[in-house]
Amino acid sequence: NAGVTQTPKFRILKIGQSMTLQCTQDMNHNYMYWYRQDPGMGLKLIYYSVGAGITDKGEVPNGYNVSRSTTEDFPLRLELAAPSQTSVYFCASSYGENTEAFFGQGTRLTVV
Amino acid sequence: GQNIDQPTEMTATEGAIVQINCTYQTSGFNGLFWYQQHAGEAPTFLSYNVLDGLEEKGRFSSFLSRSKGYSYLLLKELQMKDSASYLCADLDSNYQLIWGAGTKLIIKP
Q1: Least CB–CB distance from A43: residue in B8, B30, B99
Q2: What is the mean pLDDT of residues B66-85?
């Protein structure tokens, strides 16, 4: 059981470049989330989805986009990378909104 | 407001007991989560409390007081592998998790 698989683990982007962080889960969870984690700060919700075809903005959505075409996949798109997007990104999924969340291994992104 | 407060860092001795406190001030409440996060790794679930009281799960216990907006995580018989950050997260009225910055727990032999 793979759980939540997130790629890549590390990435360096130049300012203005674009990239997609991939996330897939094999637990048939309806709820999926993207968080960013900065040093000394709590996890901040970027976007979330409550099922295929449905996405919603979280606390810090600016500069990001998502899609949820299938239950399994929830990619995060950065269109024009900025230094402020340097962070560790985590994808997570859960069965329900008040149940345990399972996290991917994280992506450490540096924008230079 | 939506503030989750927990101490930044705590130090404890192997074999001892430590209590990590968390206070929350969110409008609306749907439960309180605790997660463990080792350095460089993803958070992993420890506990979820939605009713007042203490819930015990092996060496770890979690307590909630809704009237006081207060929770704590109690770790007994500390082991070196318990060195990690412990994240408190409140499930608000919109069923979104509001995360604290985490408490870094350092275990000394």
Answers
A1: B99
A2: 96
